[in-house]
Design goal:
Structural class: alpha+beta
Oligomer: single chain
Strand content: 25-35%
Number of strands: 4
Distance between the termini: 45 Å
Radius of gyration: 18 Å
Number of helices: 1
Shape: flat
Helix content: 25-40%
Amino acid sequence: MKPPSATSLVFLIGVAMVPGCAVLAALGFRGRVSTVGIDLGTTYSVVAVNEHGAVRVLPDFNGKNLTPSIVGFVPRAP
């Protein structure tokens, strides 16, 4: 039998985490003071913090809530 690929393992871990995250969300993260959420989108990303039940989106340095998702490839330094 062939071992599972890395992609399959990542998918299975993600599927396993969904019910756990749903339970934690339903419980309201009791006992936690603040939680940070990061949405890494393919076009834009957003970061928010939940402090004592109030969610606040953190703006970027230009004051905008959505930040373009950018990946840069630079040549290696000599």
